[in-house]
Amino acid sequence: MNKNNKFIxxxxxxxxxxxxxxxxxxxxxVAAYALPDAERLCSKSLKKEIESSKxxxxxxxxxxxxxxxxxxxxxxxxxxxxxxxxxxxHVVFGGMLSKALESKIAKKAGGVYDYFxxxxxxxxxxxxxxxxxxxVIIDNVDYTVNSSRCAVFGYGRVASLAAEVLSSLGAxxxxxxxxxxxxxxxxxxxxxxxxxxxxxxIAKNYQILINTVPSVVINNEIxxxxxxxxxxxxxxxxxxGVDFAAADKLGINAILCPSLPGKVAPVTAGRIIADxxxxxxxxxxxx
Length: 287
Hints:
The protein has eleven helices and eleven strands. The chain is α/β, with parallel strands linked by helices. The strands form two sheets. A six-stranded parallel sheet has the order 8-7-6-9-10-11, with helices on both faces. Strands 2-1-3-4-5 form a five-stranded parallel sheet, sandwiched between helices.
């Protein structure tokens, strides 16, 4: 066995399962641990599998509570346990690594990389994310996207693509942002625009709200003015952008939708991550 050609993928969802399949199809030796429906599950202990591997792929996000590796299985693996098995020969990849965790790994491993900070990964990842947004809308409304009135909060990669896709389906889209520069970009694309702090004045006109801003922007003031039956979809990272307690109290359907690519397009999302990792190996001279 050539250790320099071996990956171990630890934890995660169906994206990581497809990362294993994709890398295996490219001729790499791949083992998997704590993955749903993986064909390459470890035959040895986690410690021995890590010792016999050079590359370690952790999930996206690596951890949700700061203590245990994120996984869809019942297996509980502490972050510290994995770190304890690392040596200077290991190269570790993970998604949404905190600076503190990245620093801890760097003290033991020969290299550590956050694949979700790469432009090639995040740009491509917007497509399955927006596909997921569309699926959530279709699953939760009894009317067509065409002619619906939608507000998109933020104007980053996901928000801008979501606005374009919804508009292409005939929705009336308003982009809500804090920065004049973001509103200017949206106006150039032909969208109506509004400062977030002024949205409450027009909130009653909208049927669907999509948030990408990772701070509470859809607050109680806005929620109280929404029409009955309004759907809110939050795809932002923590601490998210909706006051969910207030929405629940008001009977508003507000849905938190983390990790949409892994739920609606795990094959594509897995390949995007795998290609990002292979690009890192090439750029950094590994192999």
